[in-house]
Amino acid sequence: MLWTQSQPVVMAFIRSMVAHQDDAEDVLQQTAYDIATHFDDYDADRPFVAWAIGIAKYKILAYRRDSGRSREVFNNAALDQIATAYAEQSDQLSENARALDHCLQKLSDKARTLIELRYTQGLKPASIAEQIGTTPSTVSNALSRTRESLRTCIRRRHERETR
Q1: Which of 88, 116, 148 is the last residue of a domain?
Q2: Which pLDDT tens digit goes with each residue over 68-88?
Q3: Do 128 and 54 share a structural domain?
Q4: Which entry of 20, 37, 44, 83 is 20 to 30 Å from 117 by CA?
């Protein structure tokens, strides 16, 4: 249950450090495995999400080492600070993730497909346009409208929850 609640925040942290979605998912799986195998080491008096992010941080460092990524975007001190910030903001990040999931479900199939192609598959508007048979500017405009729709939906959902 602790992992299920913390997993979206841990994934957000990993995605902020690992550029490619597939690699980030691999790091997340390695993190989940270590959490499961070392759960007896968890101190229940401390926040679980901070512990999980700490494990993820070491998995990210191992990923960088093993994949030969010598050009690090962040040094270890910066990585520590980012991990701390994610742990401190975990409740807000979880609320945002739930709101985003809710709002994504409200999108049309076409808009959801564009979001999937752009942000999950990492395609640029030109590649998306080629795939769906339109122009890059049409794709860019549709993505812009969709992002604004998601922002509005998320804002409204947060406003309803804070009442």
Answers
A1: 88
A2: 754 555 667 777 777 777 777
A3: no
A4: 83
